[in-house]
Amino acid sequence: MPISGFQRPLAEWRQESINKVEPRPGVYEFYDSLEFIIFIGGSNNIRETLQNYYNSGFSAKPCLRGATHFRWEYIDKWEPALNNHMVVHKATSGGQMPECNK
Question: How would you list the strands of the sheet with 11-12, edge to edge?
Fold first, then answer.
């Protein structure tokens, strides 16, 4: 079961879904096929970051190759929000960080 404070539904990891993301700052999460969070990240331009991951096949972060879905939230001050998401995830998952954030 996913653990997230995001209100947005999960999007499939494919180009059509990335195209719906605005080029704005925020926080994003990647999920595996069981819909568990495997990575929490943040960016000044979420669409560009997601597009770079997609184009490279996660070459910079191979542990994300199992991602099947993602979710995002637009937040201008994404760094503190990212930290908050990490704290909440760790507190609600038995002290564990997402697999690809370790």
Answer: 11-12, 69-74, 26-31, 37-43
Reported pTM: 0.91
Instruction: Give SS3 for 26.
Output: strand
Tokens in use for 23? Answer: 């080029």
Between CA 12 and CA 18, with CA 17 as vertex, the angle to 5 degrees is 120
Name the CATH code of domain 11-101 (choices 3.40.1440.10, 3.40.50.1820, 3.40.50.10260, 3.40.50.150).
Answer: 3.40.1440.10
What is the C-alpha to C-alpha distance for residues 39 and 32, in angstroms, rounded to an integer? 9
Band of residue 8 on the pLDDT scale cut at 50, 70, 90: confident
The answer to whether the CB of 11 falls within 8 A of the CB of 77 is no
